[in-house]
Amino acid sequence: MDTEKKTARYGRILNQLDDLLTKTDNPDARMATIIAVLHHKFNYFFWTGFYFVQRGELTVKNYQGPLACQVLEKDKGVCWAGINQKKTIVVPDVHKFPGHIACDSRSNSEIVVPVRDRNGAIVGVLDVDSTVLNSFDDVDAVNLERIVGMIYN
Ligand code: SME
Question: Any idea where the domains of the chain sit in the sequence?
């Protein structure tokens, strides 16, 4: 998707979410809403969801897309890299990412964005997979960071 079109679409999504997320401050309701909007607005979002840290494990939360791994092995793969490095991770080709966890063999590129609670602690990640190589760039990173920043606001 070209940068201009992608930027404009994120702009419309941010406006829509600004309105939708005023209905409740419940983080789970907000995450479900965010996932539904993102997954259906971008056709390259093949799997869109959250993994949260629970008792030291990364466990799947709400998502849209094909069946995914429920628990991710500690300190392995892209989601744990996002948690441990405390930053957004863009993976152009998952097959070249050491330790990548393939929940679905059709995924080829991925982005992981850490989610912070009201105290600034990292509690989980937003994870998006695409079947197309090199789907995610800085436009996705910046906008998805803004969007996850709305969950606990
Ligand atoms: N690929 C992720 C696992 C989650 S799935 O993509 C839904 C990882 O390496 O952490």
Answer: 3-148
Q: Under CATH, which architecture does the 3-148 domain have? A: 2-Layer Sandwich (3.30)
Q: pLDDT tens digits for 67-100? A: 999 999 999 999 999 999 999 999 999 999 999 9
pLDDT at position 141 over 90 = yes
Q: Ligand 1: which residues within 6 Å by Cβ?
A: 47, 68-69, 72, 77-79, 100-101, 103, 107, 110, 127, 129
CB-count exposure of residue 146 (10 Å: 0-12, 13-18, 19+): middle
pLDDT mean across residues, the chain: 97
pTM of the model: 0.97
| 9 dihedral zone (left: phi>0; alpha: psi -120 to 50; beta) | alpha
